[in-house]
Every structure is written in C-alpha cells, then in structure tokens.
Target: Plasma membrane ascorbate-dependent reductase CYBRD1
Amino acid sequence: LVSVLSSAIIVYRLPWTWKCSKLLMKFIHAGLNTIAMILAIVSMVAVFEYHNAKNIPNMYSLHSWIGLTALIFYSLQLFLGFAVFLLPFAPVHLRAVLMPIHVYSGLTIFATVIATALMGITEKLIFSLKNPSYSASPPEATLVNCLGVVLVIFGSLILWMASRPHWKRPLEENTKVLRPIGGTSEGTEAESTMTNSSNVDKSDLRISTEAARKQNLKFDEAGQRSTM
Model:
C-alpha cells in the first residue's frame, strides 16, 4: 500500500508524464489506486485469518485501529474519486470544489498509512524478539528501526513532491484558468471549462446588448420620422 499509493500520488508530478494527455493520467492514477486498494483488502483478510487461526484477538492494538480507519477512508476516497473525477457525470463546479479536498484527504491517508506501518513493525518486534529482547538492540531491531527511518524519509519526500508548486503538472497551452484559493493543477480541467463557459456567457451578453441597442436606434429613427 505504501509503494503503490505513493506512485499514484506522484504520477501527476513526474515531468516525463506531462506530455501525456490528462485523461490518460487520470486512468493511470485511478488504476494505481485500485491496485493498492485490492492489495490492502487482501492483506487485511490475511491478517484476520492468521489471527483467527492462532487464536490471537483482533482489533485490540492502536496499529489495527489506525490501519482499519485508513483502509475505510481510502475506500471512500477511491469511490468518490471515480464518481466525481473519472466519470463524466459530476457537474463542473462540484469538481472544482471537491478537488482541494480530494488532494488533502489523499495526502492525509498516505501519511496515516506510513504511521500504521511504523506502529506495525514496532509491534512485531516487541512480540517477536524474546531472547535477546527488543530493548537489548539486537541486529534485527537495528535493521527494522532503520527500515522505519527509511519509511519516514520516503513519506516525507512524497509529501514534499506533492506539495511543491514547481512539481505540479503544467497548464494546458492556450488555456486560461481561474484558479481558486487552495486549488491544484488537477482541477484545471474543471476550472478551464468554467472559464470557457464564462467567456461564452460574456460574449452572448455582448451580442444581445448590441442587438438591443440597434433595435432601440431603429425605434428612435422611426419615432423621429413619425414626428417629422
């Protein structure tokens, strides 16, 4: 879940993907998230089956609480992402409003997954290392502690890449975008559509105003002729 979810997060941020179409990147983003979700469900089922086979209580530790919470919110994130941003049924203004929330919740879920992994490996060390114990710092403990440090560094790099403006996907050429406060590059499609529709409305208003002005001029000329 850590590796595949991180790939789904930064797929828009990689410079060599900026030449690909936005629709293709949407499908890649959704596909990676789907793979991560399937793997997470398989691992969750395996954990419950292992606990039941060994007569180990389920859902008693903080690791299990946070892990299950992250999985539930991740499933909601994936479902809403498909319904709002991938399928062409959601209104444009709804996509623009939900895009910052979608980005923030995705990064929060990723940080929660990192925290769950850190708690899980620590819990496993405490239960597994008996002689010598975890407190004696055997080589296994040092190895897994280093793994935890690597996870923290890796998660920090992913969050840094996802939050830096210069890593964002460039705007499409010849597209003027009105970016809302807190908006991200992922919302450019919806925002550009709103901008285009606004320009169309303004042009229609100018045309109708011009027609009304010409009609008033005709009425004035007709009135002057009747008066003369």
Notes: The mean pLDDT is 81. Residues 188-227 form the longest helix (40 residues). The chain has six helices and no strands. The helical segments are 2-10, 22-54, 62-86, 92-128, 139-163, 188-227.
